[in-house]
Amino acid sequence: MPRKITIEPVTRVEGHGKVTIQMDDNNNVARSRLHIVEFRGFERFAQGRPYWEMPVLVQRLCGICPVSHHLAAAKAVDVIVGAGTGEGLTPTGEKMRRLMHHGQIFQSHALHFFHLVSPDLLFGADADPAIRNVIGVALEHKDLAVQGVMMRKFGQEIIRATAGKKIHGTGAIPGGINKHLTPEEKDEFLKGKDPLNIDKMIEWSLGALDFFKGYHAKNAEMLDNFAVFPSNHLSLVRKDGAMDLYHGVLRAVDSEGKKILNDVDYQDYLKYIGEEVKTWSYMKFPYLLSIGKKDGWYTVGPLARLNTADFIPTPLAQKEFENYKAYTKGKPNHMSMHMHYARLIELLHAAEVMKELLNDPDLMKGELVTKGPKAKEGVGLIEAPRGTLFHHYRIDDEDKIVMANLIVSTTNNNEPMNRAVNYVANKVFNGKKEISEGMMNRVEMAIRAYDPCLSCATHALGQMPLEITMVDSSGNVLGKKTR
Amino acid sequence: MSKPVVATASLAGCFGCHMSFLDIDDRILQLIELVEFNKSPVDDIKKFTKMCDIGIIEGGCCNSENVENLREFRKHCKILISLGECAIMGGLPAMRNGIPVRECLEEAYLNGPTVDDNIIPNDDELPMILDKVYPCHEIVKIDYFLPGCPPRADLIWEALVALVTGKELTLPYEAFKFD
Ligand code: SF4
What we know:
Strand order of the largest sheet of chain A: 8-7-6-11
Oligomer: heterodimer
Bound molecules: iron/sulfur cluster
Number of strands of chain B: 7
Number of domains of chain B: 1
Largest sheet of chain B: 5 strands, parallel
Radius of gyration of chain B: 18 Å
Distance between the termini of chain B: 40 Å
Shape of chain B: globular
Largest interface: A-B, 80 and 68 residues
């Protein structure tokens, strides 16, 4: 008899989502869906607000990576105040923002790996959920937990020094930044007492990579075959093809690595990107207009960025990048669990970039803000920890917002996450009559690889009860399992 | 004596309050000596498995699921705390109060410059959106309020330690932030 399985909520992912799996008469998966169930309405209530509020307002859609929204909005507003796109700012303005952003990438990637993913790796997908969490890690692998906590703290302190506050800061303002870094702050970050200094952070990032590579050596079979499917990939890259998480041109490659979006100016994103709406989720489905709704979907985030970029412009991360690329013989990597590998290479890159910036005297002196001829419209893009983030605003003569359009990182990953769920559901649910804890957690692991920040995807984290309901074709509940 | 049990939830919030909680940094290691966690997004416990002493709520209520979840928390927690502006006053999500929900949906799914499907999501799996966003104390009784957007980590830490150890909490004037 056909039945329906619901995994709700999806935990250890930031957001309000649930999964339904519809089974057919032979106990095979007929259909699976990841539903995003919250709706905020930001596009409408932003209207009528003054444009300069956007950088402080929009970050409150997501407290996990508020800096990304803060900066994407600020970049859009830069265009409106005539400060140009990225290159237009003063060296101090641009570099302070870059430092803030890499602090954010660092803390977010550390949080993701140590708090959300390490429990699955350390305890295994079938472990008791009462231990399989960050508290379990803290109790049983204290050293690792301490590293995670301190790396996150370091990133948060960088954010505080550049944005004014660890969460929901105010540092980026239209056309620049509102403060310098003080020499005391700089010295603290560069030479502070262990472990809170940049050299320790680089050492620990390398350590995290070794941990993952060691794990991979023993578990390659699982990591290489868990949710693998061909995809297009999209990200910003620097004009010369280098990885750049703060600014660049928009590039997409297909599953074979051929460029399908050739380093275009993102101010024109409307020419290239559309979004499909489906009845069963509040999250839209973005796609490349040139390919169309059916096949134009793409992946964003760490895996995508390592697939689009030609190289990484910092030496230690570049070395890791070369090994990483060699594993797939230079072709795009489609293994969902390698997202964690890619994320750790970026963690290392972010630490290297922070070190470079902290040694730059421009942070401590120089003009903070630029302005130019006013424009009525601006688009701001940034590579948030989870992928490309789009902000687009139009204003009227009174400086009020008349149109706001956001395509957030997790939305860009909507289709790939649905594919990953489907892949795993087919592998672990097909032919099964009983549903185990481990089966449910595997579905969540697939979603978790994408590190979805569902809270900003709904322009809405969280934890809801895990509930499985089996439903037959006429809607009768056959059984229910909760934990 | 067994440890006090703490549960947390994020309703219509941005998770920033939970992140600020994590900003207590290494004190988290002390905290897990002091208390036991039950249902919370920080661990993987999805259903209440026992009666809890302290429930911490982030975010207000924007849909039927938030309301159910909040009522569950009231039922299972002796003390309930509203953490942050969204839980206390609705916060940013409440900026839609005063605008018909229909208009918000239309702007997001029909009028946006990147959409052309003429569909507004309306599946049975999607919970009902409420007419406006409600602060938690309008739905259930709330015992304590910790202000801020997000409340600073030190405030969350001090308040929890005070509750757990029974010592009195003195709040400095600067802690009353609503930014
Ligand atoms: S109070 Fe602020 S930090 Fe907390 S959930 Fe609301 S917006 Fe986020």
